[in-house]
Amino acid sequence: MTTIAELPGRALAADDNAAELAADEKRERQGLFVLCSPALVLVFLVVILPVGWLFWLSLYDAHDAFTWGNYTRMVHSGAYIKTFRTTFEISVVVTGVCVLLGYPLAYLLSQLSQRLAALGMICVILPFWTSLLVRTYAWLVLLQRKGLINEALLGLGVIDHPLRLVYNFTGTVIGMVHILLPFLVMPLYASMKTIDRDLVRAAANLGASPVQGFWRVFFPLSLPGLFAGVVLVFVLCLGFYVTPALLGGGKVQMWAMRIETSVNLYANWGAASALGVVLLVVTLAILYGLHRLFGLHRVLGPS
Amino acid sequence: MTRRSVPITTAAVLAGAFAAGALVGPAFAAGSITVASWGGAFQAAERKAFFQPAAKALGIVIKEDTTNGIADVRAQVKADAVKWDVTEQGSNTCAQLQSEGLVEPLDYGVITNTKGIEPTLVSSHWVGIIYYSTIIGWSTETYGQNGPQSWADFWDTKKFPGSRASYAKPYYNLEAALIADGVPFDKVYPTLETPEGQDRAFAKIAEIKPSVAVWWRSGAQSAQLIKDGEVDALAIWNGRISSAIKDGAKAAFTFNQGVFDFDCLVVPKGAPHKALAMKAINQFLAPGNQALLPRYISYGPVNLDAFETGLITPEQAAQVNSSPQNAKVQFVLNPNFWVGRYDKLQERFDELIQE
Amino acid sequence: MTPASDTQISHLGRLWLYVLGVLVMLFLVLPSFIVVPMSFSDSAYLEFPPRVWSLRWYESFVGSVEWRDATVVSLKAAVSTMVLATALGTAAAYGLHVSRFRLTAAIQALLGMPLIVPVILIAIGVFYVYARLGLNNTIAGLILAHSTLAIPFVVVTVAAGLKTYDMNQEMVARSLGATRLRAFLSITLPQIRFSVVVAALFAFITSLDEVIVALFISGGENATLTRRMFNALRDQIDPTIAAISTCLIGVSILALVLIQAFGRQRTPRA
Known about the structure:
Chain B is an alpha/beta fold. Chain B has helices at about 5-30, 40-60, 70-80, 90-100, 140-145, 150-155, 175-180, 190, 195-210, 220-230, 240-245, 275-285, 285-290, 295, 315-320, 325, 335-340, 340-355; strands at about 30-35, 60-65, 85-90, 125-140, 165, 210-215, 235, 250-265, 300, 330. Chain B is globular, with a radius of gyration of 24 Å.
């Protein structure tokens, strides 16, 4: 009786087959990469290409002559330097306030029952989906000299004169915190939900006080989510436009606002482009720096 | 259908279409232009006073759009994608566009309604359309009827304590600053043309800066400020504050030392319907149409013949900034000063007002 | 005392946390709710609390051709963006998850670009490119730009959903003879449905609420709602905007209810 091994035709050698299957699999996997391409094409056409074009434009002046003037103007002009400083100050302050307010909120939500947490998340998501313009204007109405907050404080006798809560740095910070807080709370909450409660219970069993248990077990485990949120908020702050324009009273000029005014001010696009390019480079540099420090690839992206 | 009846049927269909086309022909052959202005209540007023009467008189359709300023025109002309036939711009913008070669020369063979217009407002590539003024307004809750009556008063925070608001651009601000510092009207521009004069103006603005609560960027913002009582005194466009008062704002204003300026019309280079655009501009400048504007907003007609038509009532004339009694106390802004100087001065101004 | 959590702290011990949490939540929702009464005010300026109540701003919204057209444009763009971005983003997330390609991290970074590059930069760049291509003030141009902005959200959301999904189920289906596509559509997709729906809603809202790019590239007859609102705020602050926002809040609440409805069928996490 012939065994299978003795059958004519291709030998069913184990290694050959395995190798071919592996090669097939690899080809198939690489072929699947094609699924990413439409999205990549779109990103290339709408983001990479125009930004590259702007970079090229920034090197030319109004008379189409090559020049570094658009960049040197930034270093020499006091107005630009103030703008950069203001942008960073606001970004740091807003991110800080978001962390102070957002971390406790995320922690609280992560500790609640499913239903209560869902209710709480509605409070976080609802403003996120109300129009940005409208929320900013609502803050204007609330914070102005004769607005609700001042009237309430005056009525309660807490203050004598109305506080200057808007058309300045304060108002801008309040408005921006309100817009950006959900961006911090959502990744942080998601990350906190994945923390294994057994670890915290174990710490309690081993004699840690609640505070110790939090700081030494829970908090470090929540850091990836926190960093994701902080990075997202900070980067968004750098490029913010609408809220400082409406709540800053003309005194708070952020980078994106200056780009917009440059579009209207100069006869060519070089000035605005140069500002935009510098903003982009700074943003990428900050992201890269944070990546080196904290290993961002672990917190951003699918895997 | 038989083979013979097909040509007959076809002919019938074609004849019918032709007849139908002839009936609606005039509408199609009428033509249309696109006009861009500043939007909102301002454009609504211009629509009633200028665009609709002009469309009716010429038998055309006037489509509207809104403009944000000079960048729109530049972008369209440079990209060779001009959508607008006529656009309204600020006085210095028109002069700037002319110097950049981005606008068509106006056809004064067609635009004949220029008799009653101040000659300085009639230029080869642009023509004035309305007068507006930046005046001093104040909250009557703070100062009653006795608010600041001059720029020197505006700057005087001892006599008139409280918060201020001003335009976030150097226009009107530099002129007002020098006037507040005591420079007579006719010496303002000669002074501003010198570096020392500019330094003097900026130093004066630095003086008032601590009291300025808001540097406003849009007319609507300034109106909301005075309506909310957010500031005690402000520099504001006269049409805006008149509307706010009509709507119940507790405010008052004076034309004294107001900065008298104008908006103008240009035809972007490469506009699709140039010839019609010229005819439309002529209609907008007709005294009869110009006289309709004060009914809807308190900005003044550039064509002073409008005051002779009898269509402007005395109440309207009192509110309008270009009526004789109001015009004579004001300071006339010179747009040619700003051409070529604007960006440097704006940069310096920005640096000053930022905190 | 019943402990409030696994760390054995009592409810009283962390009362401050509850108070702070509630205050922050109030802070988050208050402005949205202020807008609703403002929309019923009779004054021609934004006023709160309203002195005289009326529906005139809703009438102004519904009665105005420009606002109605703008709403139609915004909705068209939002729905198309939702479809396009969800399709492309889901495909990309799936491709990335399954292919384990060498350059996965680089692709992820590229797909995240629309989020990282400042929106104002994208806006003026796209404006300039569209000016050359004649795509300014068209709905097609708007859809392309908004879809690109929405893609990072879709990719991250769907990828998170795929992470907790067992790909072997697809393997089983294929071993039983289904093609990869069929296996994806009939096995995988229904199970990651929650993530895909959330991603689609994200894309919808991103497009509907987008201000800056629309400000530059939409206009004329194809102006979006946000562009008209922004310009209206510049020219004439009128409470029609409050009326529109109240309607938009209604839409958001509807979207949230939809999510909850889908969410109930989802297997609860352990």
